[in-house]
């Protein structure tokens, strides 16, 4: 099985390394000659406390190479994923499998609708990784990745996408990936914008009564939207799940907090923006989400 990786950042590098180590043929898709040159000079360094340090020479090419793509993993930030997919669309064949792996919601569904003749899958992960520098990735967290079909073409695919065994990736197929994406976006909508705004670690999100009340009200809004969309979230209240995740990741700075800090674009539109747009569609008021959407947008603008 040959996988092309589009988005060779933190998570994309982990997947490239793990697929390569599991014996798959892997090709990295890089978007300009400078990046390709940098990669060719150093290769991919993958560090993990479980498997040690690997110096890997995985094939790489520019996105506008001409060979057909059999299996594509799109693992950019959510705001870039549809454009990234479009940039290689001509290389996909009617038999290609495309997996969209990112946080947030929207682009995955747009991809499934835009390419009904292709098998479009979505994936969500609780793994953690960061880049020490370009093409040098540190695996920081060991979670689970769930993937499942998003459109009819993928539903008809009966084999598993990942037949090999991975020592360090826990990958499972789910029949209802949409619901898993909803659950993840709900948690991210409750934690990410507030930690970015308070400039705090996840573990500090609930450490005052005022913050706890805000998170509780925010969770109420998100849950009401999910229910209106026929996606009731968890068996326990969203607030309890969020409190659990915040405790489990207490020492982390959320990805949105880090994006603001490092003056990078955030996924606010695909997380909180998605919740707000669904709320509008169902006539539900979400004043806290709306306020957070605008505050994070303003923070992003200010940090440019
Ligand atoms: N990192 C983590 O621990 C976790 C991340 N996630 C989610 O996974 C997704 C990916 O995150 P992460 O790996 O951290 O992100 P990164 O920013 O580290 O990587 C994204 C990569 O995508 C590349 N890219 C962007 N646009 C294009 C394009 N048009 N064509 C080709 N490549 C492109 C970027 O390349 P360039 O360098 O050229 O800009 C960059 O290397 C996000 O949705 C994130 O929220 C989920 C759980 C944990
Ligand atoms: C679960 C959480 C909040 C962990 O930091 C996350 O997914 C993120 O930071 O984007």
From TrEMBL:
GO BP annotations listed: pantothenate biosynthetic process
**Which Gene Ontology terms of cellular component type are present?**
cytoplasm
A Pfam cross-reference name: ApbA
Q: Which InterPro entries match?
A: 6-PGluconate_DH-like_C_sf, 6PGD_dom2, ApbA, Ketopantoate_reductase, KPA_reductase, KPR_N, NAD(P)-bd_dom_sf
Domain (Ketopantoate reductase C-terminal) ranges: 176-298
For this protein, what reaction is catalysed?
A: (R)-pantoate + NADP(+) = 2-dehydropantoate + NADPH + H(+)
Question: What are the alphabetically sorted keywords of the record?
Answer: NADP, Oxidoreductase, Pantothenate biosynthesis
Pathway(s) where this gene product acts: Cofactor biosynthesis; (R)-pantothenate biosynthesis; (R)-pantoate from 3-methyl-2-oxobutanoate: step 2/2
Q: Name one GO molecular function term.
A: 2-dehydropantoate 2-reductase activity
Q: What class of enzyme is it?
A: oxidoreductase
Function comment: Catalyzes the NADPH-dependent reduction of ketopantoate into pantoic acid.
The family note in this entry says: Belongs to the ketopantoate reductase family.
| Name of the protein described by the UniProt record | 2-dehydropantoate 2-reductase
- Origin organism is Neptunomonas concharum
